[in-house]
Amino acid sequence: MLLAPDRPRTVTARPRSALDRRGFLAAGALAGLAAAAGCSPAAPAGDAPDGGRTVEHPLGTAQVPVAPQRIVSLDSNGGLQVALEAGVPLIASETLQGAAPVPPYLPAPAADFTPLGFNQLNLEQLVAMGPDLIIGNTQRIEEHYDRLAAIAPTVAYENAGRGAVWQQAVRTIGDVLGAGEEIERRLAAYAERLDQVRSAHTGVIDRYTVALLRFTTDELRIVRGQIFGSAVLADAGLTRPPSTDLPSPQQTHVPIGDESVGVLADADVLLYFLGGGGLVDEADATFERYTAGGLWEQLPAVRAGRVAQVDPLAWWDGYSVSAGLACLDELDRVLGGLRT
């Protein structure tokens, strides 16, 4: 028996946009454009403007306003989500690919918010916006950091892709945005909800192992490690089956071939989602291909009816307290419906 999510999950096919390199100008030229647009380049370390502060980060040092008023996020996960839930003035951000560019569990952006698309970068557009702070995860901005820092103070942070614990990453982003107290309040609410879920389902949590699966454009993957959804399961005290540690515990996912579905036989419960990130195209077709075969039907979790679909917007694209609460709500529903 498949436990369907509370609302339909639509996987919308949309071609992935290539990185826009038309705006990749030299740093000196960008500084000139920034001045023309009324946006000064980042001040050198140790020379913070009045009321500013020095922030050290993985790519360098930035002089950041205490209360930035024109924030741009080049991260459709942590940067976008933490900024919206903290209520800071986010004027633009990269957004998610698919039917919901901004997850519905977040507060809506301001009316004048500019979505920058998924995995796109146009430096000329950023200059014209006149931001006073640019944020983004290290992988997303490190190649263009010097050019970005010529437009506005730019701060990088590590995320799950570099092994960062999501709560600490959220704290870091909140501190950079000047919203540390609000993020701590929200993290406390997450911890309280976590205790509720653990208390309500202690017997199930202690008894069953759980594997989190992702059906992508072309394959099935076991999600694990510090990737957001996997980390939430660990927060709740759920145990992974041994198959999730093959071939190496350091990997963030385990690819499963069409003929290797049987490796999931050691999982008591299977949670799955379709797509997420940039691999949303035809994820539903991948799901049909893997689950139509006899190998899937023979899995103990499938035969026992302990399989449930969850929302990729929370379990994969999520990277915020709001996303964590959405995951816990779904997990509460799933655990409550399991056959014991």
From TrEMBL:
Highest taxon of source: Bacteria
Keyword Aminoacyl-tRNA synthetase: no
Keywords: Signal, Transport
Keyword Signal found: yes
Similarity annotation: Belongs to the bacterial solute-binding protein 8 family.
Name this polypeptide is given: Iron-siderophore ABC transporter substrate-binding protein
Domain Fe/B12 periplasmic-binding: residue ranges: 70-339
